[in-house]
Amino acid sequence: MALVSKNKMGFLTGSILIPSEIDPIYPHWERCNTLLMSWLLNSLSPSIAQSVVFFERAIDTWTDLRE
């Protein structure tokens, strides 16, 4: 529910694409992605978190967890 209400679900579904690093919106994307990574990692048990901590994008973490 929180992801939908905060308009963040697109980061996990792929509908919000990563912008170019020179795009003015990139810092905003990066901030939201970092927030999602924090939410995801803090919701996992330490043993599971260790297996996904190396991902840089929330969508990659989410995809790996779903598999």
From TrEMBL:
**Under which name does UniProt file this protein?**
Retrotransposon Copia-like N-terminal domain-containing protein
Q: Which domain of life is it from?
A: Eukaryota
